Structures are given as C-alpha cells and as structure tokens.
C-alpha cells in the first residue's frame, strides 16, 4: 500500500508540473544534461577574459570600430553634384519625403539661379496623413468581412498612419497637391516630432473605423459606410490643421538671386553676411498655387522616374510589386525591376555624371556611423572582437528577416577609379550636426551589401530593363521584408 500511494502521488505531481499532453522529455529542450554539457565545454581563456573585461567596461561599438576604414577615408569624390542646404527630418519618419524633394532641389536652384532653396515638407506631410487616413478607411471597408486575425487585416492596422513611405508616395502627393517653399508652410513642433501626433491620430482613425464596422454589422450598405467615413475625415482634417497648419491654396513668394561672384567659391564671404538684401538681388514677387509653383519651378515629370531593386532572394530581370504599398486611394502600388547590383551601380553612375541625383533606400542599421559619416562593410568588426562568424548573405538577410531597406537618402556624387566606383557621396536628412556636416561617405562594398533600390530617370536605364516594366508584375505580399517602405 505505501508503494501504491507513493506512485499515485508522483503521477499527480507530474500532471501538475507538465503541460497537458506534453512528453516528459521532449526533443530539443534545454535539458539538464545539455546545460551541464555547455557549462563543462566552455572554459574562459585569457583571450575571452580580456574581451570580457573590455566589453563590460567600454561601449562595444567603440571597441569594434575598424580604424583601417576610418584612416582610409579622404573625403574626395571624382564627381560631385552641386547643391546647397542640408535638411533635417528631426524626430519623424519622413526620410522618403525629404529624399524625394532633395532629388529635385539641385536642378531648381541651378535652373533659377537661386541663392538657396528648401521645400516645405510639412505641406506634403499634411496631405500624406489625410490620404493615408482615407486609404485606411477604404481598406477597412474592403476587408469588412475579414476576421480580426486575417493577415491583410493585421497589416492594414499595423502600418495604419505611421510616417514611412516609398517614392510612389512622393510622386502621388506632388502630382496631386503640388509643392510650396518652406517659408510658405514651415515646420511645427508636431511635424518635427511626430510620435504624439501619430499616437492620437492612430487612436482617432481606429475609433472611427469601429463605427464604420458597426454600421456594416447592422446591415448598412457601402454608401452608408462611406458617408460615415466622410464624417470621420472632417475630424481628421481639423486635427491636422491644429497640428500642422492649414495648407495654402495660394501664396505670394520671391527669392534671392545668386550673384555671379557667388559662383566662384562655395565658401561664403563674411563681408556679404553684413549686407542688407536689396531689391536688386531679389526676384519680383508673384502669386502661385502649389500646383502652378511646381509647374514653373520644378517642371520635372516624376512619373518618368522608375524603381530598380536588388534582392538576390528573387529572380533578376523580373517585374515585381509590393501589395498595399501606397498612400493614396486610386494610385498604384510600388513596383520595380529586380536587377544585379553591378547593373544598378552602372545606372547610378550614369545619372550622377549627368548631374542628376538619385533617391535610394538602404538598411542603415548595419555598419553605419552618424558620428563619422561613414557607411562601410564591416565598419564595426564584431567578428574579430568576439571571435565569431556573422556571415549572412544579402539573400539570406531577406529570407531570415534580418535586413531590408529602412531609410531613404540621396546619392549626390561618386569617386571613380578606372571607371569603377570606390565610394559614393550621400546627402542625408539628419541635419548638419550628423555625419560630415550632413553628408556620408558610402563605400562600394557597403553598397553591395545594404543598398536595396534606386529611383532613376528612365533615360538612364537600358532599354531591355525598361521593357520588363511592360510585363505584369508578380505581387509580393504586404508583409514581405521591406514592403512597408522607409
């Protein structure tokens, strides 16, 4: 009897400890034997003790910084596109928008002989938020019968109204709403620091979406759902005006004309800073709408720019698109041709030598230094520091969700040696206090590893690549790595 009672008690204890239906020794668990083996197989040697002492007392990046890379950077480029002014997105995710406007800024300054110029990003930001709100409501109406665990429903709500975007977001906004100078609609606290505004707006649109779904569940037709959406958009427009200001429909503007003496040197003359701006070096004031301003001062057809991608995980020479990669109802998703990286670089060089900057997107989370303004493969040599192998191909970084484009910038120059690129000049939108007064040196090996796409005028793209845009694109799902944008 005692043995029977003991066996019964043990069985009850096991039922309490183990999850229902789980085996007592499941394969793959960190069993006591495995843990004991790991402990016995490792003995800290003198090298690891030195690493331990260094890492626990110093910043790891400072220890891993590859001094050979830093020492080899001379800051010179064989071709540099002239421009002026470094933008600052501050604490916002508008890099795609800044990069898009920075691509067309140099030509505007050059063609109109301007002293300097900056576009209003908050102007496009206002319309982007309103368009994204409308798109969100339309997607809720589209998916009104989907379960809340449906993957499309999840993605629509995951990326509701954040700041990210693609090049096609820029083209859609500019073509519909035009552009204005920064002085016409300047930055605000909310435009530069978007976290709180986005948080409140996110709650607002979801609360209104709940009303739309409630109407649907009561049997209301789509027309009634869109009438409810219209009421919601009225609230959102008001909220955006309070945070960003109301976008101008017409404005008067003039600009400072660059004097001939300014062309001799990029260095400002201290004596000129003391001079008062006079009518002689100002353009005549004129009235514009955002659309007429774009037509007069920019005039570039943004639809003539195409997206070229490099993702070795997918077949080259094929046309792809990302599902739900748009910010406006009635506009197409982001689409591109996947090409080898060397082909991409050849096209980029052609554009730069024609003095045409390129919008590009990359993964800046690896081997990039804000302090030094450098992007170089193995800039931080963690492998030597820890004696480990971190090798992961670009294709595998996509496969294992370990790398995708997360920031958009502008290529403004290249350093060629025997017609091959050694490094690239990057204009960023992180202000003049980061990098080398706002610019970065991007080494060619980093381009291979971490640059994913460029936006370039179609005249610089070989005809055989342009022909592929006529093919029906293969759709990659909205949860594909990098599909969300920058």
Furnish the topology, listing elements before pairings:
Layout: H1 2-17, H2 32-41, H3 46-55, H4 60-64, H5 67-71, E1 79-80, H6 95-111, H7 121-142, H8 151-158, H9 167-177, H10 189-192, H11 195-217, H12 222-244, E2 251-253, E3 286-288, H13 290-298, E4 305-309, E5 318-322, E6 335-338, H14 341-353, E7 358-362, E8 368-369, E9 374-375, H15 382-386, H16 394-399, E10 407-417, E11 420-427, E12 439-443, H17 444-450, E13 451-457, H18 463-468, E14 474-476
Parallel strand pairs: 4-6, 5-14, 9-12
Antiparallel strand pairs: 1-10, 2-3, 4-13, 5-6, 7-10, 7-13, 8-9, 10-11, 11-12
Would you kindly provide a brief summary of this structure?
The protein has helices at residues 2-17, 32-41, 46-55, 60-64, 67-71, 95-111, 121-142, 151-158, 167-177, 189-192, 195-217, 222-244, 290-298, 341-353, 382-386, 394-399, 444-450, 463-468, and strands at residues 79-80, 251-253, 286-288, 305-309, 318-322, 335-338, 358-362, 368-369, 374-375, 407-417, 420-427, 439-443, 451-457, 474-476.
């Amino acid at each position: 009897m005692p043995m029977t009672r003991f066996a019964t008690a043990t069985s009850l204890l096991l039922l309490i400890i183990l999850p229902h239906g789980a085996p007592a020794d499941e394969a793959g668990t960190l069993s006591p034997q495995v843990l004991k083996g790991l402990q016995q197989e490792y003995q800290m040697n003198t090298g690891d003790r030195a690493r331990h002492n260094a890492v626990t007392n110093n910043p790891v990046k400072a220890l891993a910084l590859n001094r050979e890379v830093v020492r080899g950077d001379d800051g010179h480029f064989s071709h540099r596109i002239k421009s002026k002014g470094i933008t600052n997105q501050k604490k916002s995710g508008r890099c795609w928008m800044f990069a898009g406007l920075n691509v067309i800024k140099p030509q505007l300054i050059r063609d109109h002989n301007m002293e300097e110029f900056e576009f209003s990003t908050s102007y496009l930001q206002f319309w982007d938020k309103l368009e994204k709100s409308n798109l969100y409501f339309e997607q809720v109406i589209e998916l009104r019968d989907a379960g809340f665990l449906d993957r499309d429903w999840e993605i629509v709500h995951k990326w509701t109204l954040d700041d990210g975007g693609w090049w096609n977001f820029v083209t859609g906004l500019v073509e519909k709403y035009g552009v204005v100078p920064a002085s016409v609609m300047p930055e605000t606290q909310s435009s530069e620091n978007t976290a709180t505004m986005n948080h409140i707006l996110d709650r607002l649109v979801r609360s209104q979406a709940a009303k739309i779904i409630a109407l649907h569940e009561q049997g209301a037709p789509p027309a009634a759902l869109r009438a409810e959406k219209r009421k919601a958009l009225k609230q959102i427009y008001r909220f955006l005006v309070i945070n960003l200001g109301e976008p101008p429909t017409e404005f008067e503007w003039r600009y400072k004309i660059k004097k001939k003496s300014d062309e001799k040197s990029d260095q400002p003359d201290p004596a000129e800073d003391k001079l008062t701006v006079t009518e002689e070096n100002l353009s005549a004031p004129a009235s514009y709408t955002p659309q007429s301003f774009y037509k007069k001062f920019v005039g570039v057809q943004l639809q003539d720019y195409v997206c070229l991608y490099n993702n070795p995980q997918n077949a080259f020479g094929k046309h792809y698109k990302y599902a739900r990669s748009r910010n406006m109802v009635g506009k197409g998703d982001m689409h591109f041709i996947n090409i080898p990286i060397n082909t991409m670089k050849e096209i980029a060089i052609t554009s730069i030598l024609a003095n045409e900057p390129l919008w590009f997107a990359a993964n800046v989370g690896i081997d990039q230094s804000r302090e030094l303004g450098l992007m170089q493969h193995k800039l931080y040599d963690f492998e030597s520091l820890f004696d480990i192998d971190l090798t992961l191909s670009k294709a595998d970084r996509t496969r294992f969700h370990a790398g995708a484009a997360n920031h958009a910038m502008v290529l403004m120059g290249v350093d060629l040696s025997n017609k091959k690129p050694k490094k690239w000049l990057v204009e960023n939108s992180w202000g003049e206090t980061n990098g080398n007064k706002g610019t970065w040196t991007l080494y060619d090996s980093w381009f291979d590893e971490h640059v994913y796409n460029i936006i370039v005028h179609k005249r610089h793209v070989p005809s055989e690549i342009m022909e592929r845009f006529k093919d029906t694109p293969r759709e990659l799902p909205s949860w594909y790595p990098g599909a969300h944008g920058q």
